[in-house]
Amino acid sequence: MDILLFCIEIMVNVFAMTDLWLILYLLFGCDMKVNLRNIVVADVVFAVSFALISIVLEGHNSIIMAYMCLYNVAVTLWLCNRGRVRAVLLTIPAV
How wide is the angle at C-alpha 21 spanned by C-alphas 18 and 55, nearest 5°? Predict the structure, then answer.
């Protein structure tokens, strides 16, 4: 049961990250490289790294949340074509 809940937690976080990038692209009009390959790569890397960090740092939620914020900012910078500062400024409060 714990493994199932852990997998659900990872999937919820992956969906939240993907939603944020799509909101930046669709609602705020940020010029981003949003295609299936880039999103899948970013989501898989996040899911694996989040799982490893969660297992290693069990119970240290503040460090895990800081990692999520930094990862999201890094991927936003990677996905943006132009207007990176604006996209990051929109990303930080959303996280």
Answer: 45
